[in-house]
Design brief:
It is a single chain. The relative contact order is 0.07. With about 700 residues, the protein is α+β, with helices and mostly antiparallel strands. A hairpin with a 2-residue loop joins strand 13 and strand 14. About 0% of the residues have low confidence. The protein is built from 25 helices and 22 strands. The N and C termini lie far apart (about 60 Å). Bound molecules: 2-(butylsulfanyl)adenosine. The site of 2-(butylsulfanyl)adenosine has 15 residues, from strand 3, strand 7, strand 8 and strand 11.
Length: about 700
Amino acid sequence: MYQPDVTKRLQALTQQVLGQLLSGTPVSALGVEDLRSILRFHEYRYYLLNDPLISDAEYDQLYNDLVRLEKENPELITPDSPTQRVAKGLGNDFQKVQHLVPMLSLENSYNEDDLRDWDRKAKEATGLTSVVYCVEPKFDGAGISLIYENDRLVRAATRGDGTEGEDITTNIRQIHSIPLSAAFGEMGIRQIEIRGEVLMTKEKFIAFNQKLAEENLPPLANPRNAASGTLRLKDPKEVAKRNLEAFVYHIGYLNTEENNKAPLSHSAALEMLWLLGFRSPEKEKKVFNGIEGVIQYCLEFEAKRDTLPYEIDGMVIKVNDLVLQEKMGMTTHHPRWAIAYKFKARQATSSLRSVEFQVGRTGAVTPVAKIDPVPIGGVTVSSISLHNEDFIREKNLLIGDRVLVERAGDVIPYIVKSFPELRTGSENKIVFPTACPVCNDPLYKSAEEAVWRCVNINCKAQVIERIIHFNSKDAMDIRGLGESHVQKFNALGFLNDIPSIYQLPYDTIAELDGYGKKSVDNLKLAIEASKSQPLYRLIYAMGIRFVGEATSKTLAHSVNHILELKEKTEEELMQLEDIGPKVAASIRSFFGIEDNINMLKALEAQGVCLENKQKEKPKDGNLTGLSFLFTGTLPTLKRNDAEAMVEAQGGKILGSVSTKLNYLVVGEDAGSKLEKAKKLPTIKIISEAEFLKLIAPES
Ligand code: IVH
């Protein structure tokens, strides 16, 4: 734990040392303890808080300087130096477990010459004139270890400090690309430890950050943080919802029978894992004799990294022959038979010119930095969200500062840090407004939040944002009434609140520049169609805080008409699936406001459907009249998808095992529900495969 003053001191010291390294002055033997403290601090920020204050490349610079210093002065090495063990100190929430074999890091290289130097050393160590290498992507996620015994996944752990990780087996079981069992026995393998990386795809990451933004929570910096944060969640159901993926790339330990068929090369190991149902980089890997082909392949991948669905931050080059790997051995930090080729960081420096304050749908005021436009990875960045006041304070930002910008996760530009050592004295403090920049009402901040809010529900900025949200794709899906149109129609006085969407003066609009009869007809059609959207979309479109799509579905399911929600107490709401006190209070508060009820009534008067039509008329299909419940982890289907399949076929999902239940669909690790169902003879207990046959009997 670092107190704020220590954090500040270590961050200032970091900047000083990085400045020295930049100007070519390495740290002297006298500064070795400072350097270690700095590295420990940044490991803590990175591994424990998932909130690094410096970039990976800067960490590497500091780390490499410590390695150099200790190499030149071996008497300075202490057992607790970060070069001897990586990032100590994990949270206490998960059980700590010892790795069967230490989970080491990788040595880094940054250019072709580094790779050629490393190839020279590999040739020396193996005594060969040319070494065969296997090259594969370096996945930018959270490292994991998986242990299978007698074909079953028995333990999954985080990397932790390399020797000791955290037991995250339950969370790992939620990831569909990790098999819960695999036929290792057929290969003569009794026990195996597999290493890999858990990832969040770029697409899922963008959607995840959008959801956070809807809840006025600051977005995560990159998919790596999202993946490692998710693995440490207490609620496995929440982990399942985030749809993580995993690649495996290394066998850490093997316990085999005699005459086993265990692989003899790394590429064969990747192939074996692939054939056993794991997601290994089987398709991405390539084997080369000598380093030149390796270099070309690394450059090729670097050029196409943006086209991949997930983040990679480099390539990993491994000596392919496992006997040679054994011969080359390892240091306390990394294996000598592998090296990472790190891609150029997608970072740039710029100057912070000003800060604008934007008001969102729920009144949250977000500071947005305006910087001198800089190209980063093919995109020009000029605006960057600073999230809230705490973020500005923590990053120690002043107007006029030079700042380091990263386009993390490919999409979201992020300020990594400022350079206080470059200040001239002409920089200015960022002053947070005390009044709303749009309606001038005073801003408020609650004790438990970092954001300031405008609480004037009629604030024009909020009204516009609410209309934009109402129209959006996942809400009422009114195409042709996106942000720019809403702004324009609002400025012209046509759109002042949500019900006015249904009273647009189409004839006047048809006369406007840029609008023809055709586009107005299309707009009219889209608006008319939205009147019969299912109830859950209307609930979601209301933009109630903490009520996302899933909660909207739960709420819609529980009523025949939206105004019935007005009558529900917080206790009643909390009996519904996935609704806790915070969400229940927010729903109550929304339906307790007279203006909101009047708005809904006005929508109804315009012909918008406020009823749960689906509830009245269950769909007809193969499962009409039948009820289902899922328990345990299904081999291929996600729980939500399976439930949606039941509903689409006219079936019903029940919340518990009772005599009303027709089918219990059982996956891995089914618990008390299965036991209870076994005692009720009318319930049919079936597997996922049998369920799929019920859904589509002909296939
Ligand atoms: S091999 C004993 N292969 O990068 C060697 N690691 O920066 C084990 N990583 O700790 C590592 N992709 O978490 C290997 N294809 C890959 C990788 C990979 C990502 C991670 C891994 C490692 C870290 C080092």
